[in-house]
Design goal:
The structure is a single chain. The chain is of the alpha+beta class and 290 residues long. It has two domains: 4-186, GAF domain (Beta-Lactamase, 2-Layer Sandwich); 194-290, no CATH class. It contains nine helices and five strands; from the N terminus they run ααββααβαββαααα. It has a five-stranded antiparallel sheet, with helices on both faces. Helix 1 (4-14) runs antiparallel to helix 2, helix 7 (195-208) crosses helix 8 and helix 8 crosses helix 9 (230-238). The radius of gyration is 20 Å and the shape is globular.
Length: 290
């Protein structure tokens, strides 16, 4: 049974309540933070929709940059990944992610995939508090929230279509079956936050004459070596401040990088000792253009 607090949150969301839904969910869960990412495009790239507080956004960006972590694992397996105490995680499970995550002050993470069967539509990430535990009640609440978000996302296209076709008034409080959905808070993003990563991957593919998968690996390696978010490095490639060439002995060394200052990045003091070279999955772009 879900808690009264989570029941109130779900009720408010169904009614199109105002305010910050991520903050409301974090308070109801008693969590340090909450993030919701949707899977968009043919490659199913994770796009952030809700994040609270700022450390949740930084952690999502870290997972995206490295291509590893509980979020990608949850989406790939279709099962929740529960690690409320990162100090108890084997170092070789997420070797690049664990050190900077701890530097951010992330104590533990539990991720819940949104989907039914083989269908994946997103992932809900819950940052655990300093107690490094997730109680049975918290787990039940998070599971209920993930189920509600899944239903809302899967019903979203039909809901919007009814309003746009003129057959309805565009009310976001119904799903056509007499049941409510989570209204305005689940409108899919009209623009991709990570579009630059798609474009940069395509440009690197052309510059190096390699596959898109290899180009993404090179881009991730550059972000890793310079301790910068993947999106920032991608922006440099798209703006032609950074160019990759075949004269480099490693994927981390490139030329024409006019913005290689790693200070002030959102990832703490380092990425760790390695990174995931798996270029498939929800935190990888599916295509791009040079």
């Amino acid at each position: 049974m879900i808690s009264d607090g989570m029941a109130d949150v779900l009720r408010s969301l169904r009614l199109g309540g105002h305010g910050d839904p991520a903050r409301a969910c974090a308070l109801a869960l008693g969590a340090e933070g909450v993030a919701l990412s949707l899977l968009v495009g043919n490659g199913g790239m994770a796009e952030p929709l809700w994040c609270h507080p700022e450390v949740s956004a930084r952690f999502e960006e870290l997972q995206f940059t490295l291509g590893e972590g509980p979020g990608p694992d949850a989406v790939r397996t279709g099962s929740p990944v529960m690690e409320p105490d990162l100090d108890r995680v084997r170092p070789d499970r997420w070797p690049a992610l664990l050190p900077p995550a701890r530097d951010m002050g992330v104590h533990g993470v539990c991720c819940f995939p949104l989907g039914i069967g083989a269908i994946r539509v997103g992932v809900l990430t819950v940052l655990c508090d300093g107690d490094r535990t997730m109680s049975v009640q918290q787990s039940a609440d998070a599971t209920a929230l993930a189920a509600a978000l899944t239903g809302a996302l899967l019903n979203g296209d039909g809901r919007r279509q009814r309003g746009e076709d003129g057959d309805g008034d565009g009310d976001l409080s119904g799903n056509g079956n007499g049941g409510p959905v989570l209204g305005m808070f689940l409108d899919r993003p009209t623009g991709l936050h990570r579009a630059a990563v798609h474009q940069a991957t395509g440009m690197i593919s052309v510059q190096l004459g390699v596959t898109m998968e290899e180009a993404l690996l090179r881009l991730r390696a550059r972000a890793y070596s310079s301790e910068r978010p993947l999106g920032e490095v991608a922006d440099d490639v798209v703006a032609r401040r950074l160019r990759f060439n075949d004269n480099d002995n490693t994927t981390g060394d490139t030329t024409s990088d006019t913005n290689n200052d790693a200070s002030g990045n959102g990832f703490g003091n380092g990425f760790g000792d390695g990174f995931d070279d798996n270029t498939n999955g929800p935190y990888s772009p599916g295509d791009g253009k040079g």
